[in-house]
Amino acid sequence: MGNAIDYFSYDNKFISFKTYFSCKARKKMFDLFVKLVHPTESDETLDLGATPDSKLADSNLFDKLYPHKSKLTVASIEDCSDLVKELSLKEFVYNEPKKALPFADKQFDICFCSAVLEHVGGFEDQEFFLQECIRVADRIFITTPYRYFPLEMHTFIPFLHWLPWKTFQKIVKATKGDFWADTDNLMLCSKSDIERMNLSKPIKVSFVRTVGMKSNMILTIDTNK
């Protein structure tokens, strides 16, 4: 994603609506993260997929809320060094799309990743990305939009994403342009997509609800298997 592309849709008339509900959902997910992962002040933690955006209230909300900032490393395909300075985080590390993460096995106690999985490419790319998260951390907490929430929050089009994905892409390309029609930029997942991935550890899928409907999937390592 380059700076020339407004992938946050700043000028979209629904952006305030999206940001409001995104903040509520992300605060709910942060509370769930604390409940499930139990972060401590000694845990080396990775936020994978931070953004340099500072305009929207929901951007990097995890980093703002996380209490142990001196132990928090952020990684991104974009330069987030200003975020590290602003919040006094541990460090920023650049990672390349579709490449192995630049970290040693189990370098971190925790890997947190919010709203990134849907932007890494197709099924095999997503599978590789999840496996890399499992490789670098003991505990993972990953969020991604649920494909069957009625409103697709990138294009702001309802229900269209329930069609076969190639059909969705054709219509989006004709009405919105190439960016969100490209699998490398957007590929939503369902629970069954995650469950059929070949990963070294089982992933547990749970949900966060918005206005009473499943809106986001939460992926954690299932320690009971």
Automatic annotation (TrEMBL):
Keyword Cell inner membrane attributed: no
Domain Methyltransferase type stretches: 93-136
Pfam families tied to this protein: Methyltransf_11
Keyword vocabulary terms for this entry: Methyltransferase, Transferase
Highest taxon in the source lineage: Bacteria
SUPFAM superfamilies documented for this protein: S-adenosyl-L-methionine-dependent methyltransferases
GO molecular function annotation: methyltransferase activity
Biological processes annotated in GO: methylation
Region forming the signal peptide: none
Protein name: Methyltransferase domain-containing protein
Organism per entry: Acetobacterium malicum
